[in-house]
Hints:
Blueprint: H1 2-44, H2 50-54, H3 67-98, H4 103-115, H5 120-134, H6 141-165, H7 169-177, H8 182-210, H9 214-218, H10 252-260, H11 265-301
Amino acid sequence: MNNLETLISRSLWQDRFFNVLGILCTCVGLVTLLALLVDLAVDGATRINWQFMTSFPSRFANKAGILSAWVGTLAVMVVTAGAAIPLGIAAAIYLEEYAGKNWFTDFIEINIANLAGVPSIIYGLMALGLFVYKFHLGESILSAGLTLGFLVLPIIIVATRESLRSIPADIREASYAQGATQWQTVWSHLLPYATGGIATGVIIALSRAIGETAPLVTIGALTFIAFLPPTPIQATPPFLSLDWIWSKFTVLPIQMFNWVSRPQKEFHLNAAATGLILLVMTLSFNALAIYIRYRMRQRIKW
């Protein structure tokens, strides 16, 4: 009995130790993030104003702005989301619900898992040879969006598969018992229940894509640009235009790198302000995805 009490006591102390260790590790990450935010806020908050948001880059720090950078970031992220989300979800559904369990699907799964860990510069080199030179898409927003789409595609596939795999088999069997086809089961039952996990994967994927620099530099993103892409909405029929996807571009991380590399302190303040804007955009995308996930879960409950 004494040995049992000793073993239980030791296990309790081990649990407490690992709880404290986990809290300390979490605090290290939070303190580091807080220090980064405070440093950026102290340096860059004074530069954030309407003029900074609506001005093009300039060789004069007090006149420089990020208009072309944040518009380019939004445009690239639209193409990235449009390419990666449907393709990633469709691939995950096929692999999880339709594909047979054989050596070929095992080969695909292994490669998807490996692609998730490939350095981003490799995707940039691939895009340079494939999109820019082979398909002649040029140094455009389309090339950039497709590059980042392929970069985050494995994350979305893995997250979607795990979300589908976590749904109890009883839901599938109940749907089939009511006479539903396999696609009807996927569309009406599995995808609604998997929305939370899919949205989480999309959040992680887009959060990574918005901060990437190396692949975009590789395919020829500009570091100084004083114009905007053509507007997608026109006053004449057909009212919508896709000319903007062929425009040259820059993004916020590249603009930050350009200003940080300059010796003047004023440009460093601009870079800090740009970092704050990039954080706000990332958190805004995350908040929107979390809200959509919450609304989808509420619809499922009702």
